Amino acid sequence: MSGLRARQKADRHRRIIEAAAALFRDTGYEAAKIETIAAQAEVSVGTIYNYYQNKGDILGAIVSMEVNEVLNAGRGVVANPPANVGDALDTLLGIYIEHSLHYLSKEMWRQAMAISTQLPDSPFGQAYTALDRALTEQIRALFVRLQAIGLVRRDIDGQALGELMFNNMNMMFIEFVKRDEARIAELRAAIRRQNRILVAAIAV
Amino acid sequence: MSGLRARQKADRHRRIIEAAAALFRDTGYEAAKIETIAAQAEVSVGTIYNYYQNKGDILGAIVSMEVNEVLNAGRGVVANPPANVGDALDTLLGIYIEHSLHYLSKEMWRQAMAISTQLPDSPFGQAYTALDRALTEQIRALFVRLQAIGLVRRDIDGQALGELMFNNMNMMFIEFVKRDEARIAELRAAIRRQNRILVAAIAV
DNA sequence: TTCTAAAATTGAGTCAATTCCGTTTTTATG
DNA sequence: CATAAAAACGGAATTGACTCAATTTTAGAA
């Protein structure tokens, strides 16, 4: 069961994603018709629904790639953080934020976020939740690292802290993508200001 | 211009909201067809769209009522908070959370949240953002109150703290409504645990 | 009371996502 | 090879939100 059929399958997957990504970027998610994606990918509408449960899942596949890149970039910071709690946090969260608009437009993010709350049990909904958890975990890992180095107090509840910080950043990011005119620099400054309270509380 | 016409208008508004609320509750938001809402409210489909820009705005009107009640209930706590930072926070956020499922089901919340990110510029999208801001402001007001009483340090950045705490609670609430089996008690406990870090940082 | 312009209502029509099922392609088997 | 079962495909049909041009209702002037 791993000959021609599997190859065609992978190829069609790729073609659908490529067609969709291009269209979402160029015309926006809403404006991109399944029919157009199908034509571009040289498959039928029915086939697209054979590969993805719904339009949101196509976007989901694209979002997952993006977030996984972000997670990867974050690993570098966790392994080798700046020698200062505030800077370490700013660097990690900065990577998340700066990377975030690389492949995805704000409109695509809005749609992705909306779908993930609307259909939490769809394949994408579950994947999105898993990605959030992975990001939270990475922030927690940074604290563990900083505790090991001796920059963060040992008696801090790393789990709760990671959640608190991720949740705040995430909510700020949601507000950010909701306003087209919002700028990354302002977002980062606002998060830095909020985190100052936490940094003061946890730094040795 | 405030005779029969105004009365009929108010009456139709009410009928539409009542019909929609009942249907959303009973069959769920997705399953509730505009046609059915129209029939129940004894108006035509077109009339509904004369009163509300889209299906989401109908839900929006219901959500706004709910959140305004919550804000109202919160005012009491701010005016007269428990004499302990942790308890004061727990009481205020507790009111938000306990109230939240009074009129709205989890599915309705999911839809409302999704729509507010999907269409941030629709009437409901803007109203939802305003409600979030009002809640954040109320939490900030509680800190100001606690500072006045002498329970919270004067040098704390109240604005940043209010945002941090609201954002965290809100994100936790989003995750809560995404899982049908999640329980209120667990949600409150998790938030309490997260807030402990903040309380330690800000208490006198 | 009658008439007219403005405001509101109506429901058939449009549009795009999703479903459905008959047809075609691929795989496994003798 | 031939062939039957399984998997995947295609595209017409369905569905439900939303629009719009025609019609009805209301307010208020004559």
Automatic annotation (TrEMBL), chains A, B:
SUPFAM superfamilies documented for this protein: Homeodomain-like (SSF46689)
Name of the protein described by the UniProt record: TetR family transcriptional regulator
Species this protein is from: Mesorhizobium prunaredense
Annotated keywords: DNA-binding, Transcription, Transcription regulation
Gene3D superfamilies named in the record: Tetracycline Repressor, domain 2 (1.10.357.10)
One Pfam family per UniProt: TetR_N
Domain named HTH tetR-type: residues: 10-70
DNA-binding region: 33-52
Membrane-spanning ranges: none
UniProt GO MF annotations: DNA-binding transcription factor activity; transcription cis-regulatory region binding
